[in-house]
Write a structure and sequence with these properties.
Layout (H helix, E strand, L loop, with lengths): L7 H19 L4 H16 L3 H18 L5 H16 L3 H19 L4 H16 L3 H18 L5 H16 L3 H17 L3 H50 L2 H10 L9 H28 L4 H11 L1
Amino acid sequence: MLSVLGRHQEALKWQEEDVEKKRRVQGDASTDTLTAMNNLALTLNNMCRNDEALSICEHVLEAQKHVLDEEDPSKLNTMNNMAAVLRCFGRSEEALTLIEEVAEKRKVLLGVDYPLTLTSMGHTAAVLVDLNRYDEGLKLHEQVLEARKRVLGVEHPETLWSMCNMSTTLYHLKMLKEAHSLISEAYQIAQSQDHHLLVEKYSSKLSMFQEEMTSQATQQSTAPTDTKNRLLEKLAKKKQAAAVAGDADRQQAAAAAASPGGDEANIDDLMAAFDLIDDKNKEGTGKSEKAISSTGGGKKGGKGKKGKKK
């Protein structure tokens, strides 16, 4: 429980003493000693002392193969912890294979709603997220959170961790409002229960989500302005092209398109203006083609007429 609450240094000191006591009394290979070492490995992993944690897990798991059955709860605990350590090394595929095996065996042995089963399922969800399998991870996080609320209560630290993990998955799925709402709820509950270290962690995540939401809102609010500016620039180029062409109809269309003009124009007006200019351009092109046709094909026809005058 000390480790769950983030009080890792206290947990480490107590567990190191427990391992030494069991070694003296029962020996290195006793199941009680191996269990104590496994608990120590988990705390070391929580403190990011991953090399030490992995070394202990490998030693314990190898020793347990000789003294425990494949489905022994102590061995499953070690496999669960080793998966967590492998995840810290970025070996997520190996971690997933290991933790899925643990979760399935615990479902059979202990039941789906048993706390240890839910721990394995939560770890499985976290590894799926590591592998960018966000939809699968979210579905499993939801299942674990609902079960922990029902079995442990909403104020239990494990339930709060589920809320935190699920909010991270929602964040990866760009569901910022939902992520912010969930971590806000976890933060408020942690405050009410005086879980100070959880409050500190959730406060940091809450700030991150809030900054992301603010940034997203700013981008959304400026997007129409940026689009409008691009449209105004395009409209100005069309008006300039019409003026250079010297076509009266196109100049008139361009002038009409400027109303309402300047900063007062909205995007719909500007889009309508583009359509109007394009229509006028087509009309102008059609008139020019008819004029050319009536004169007999342009410069060639013109030379023919001049020849007749001579």
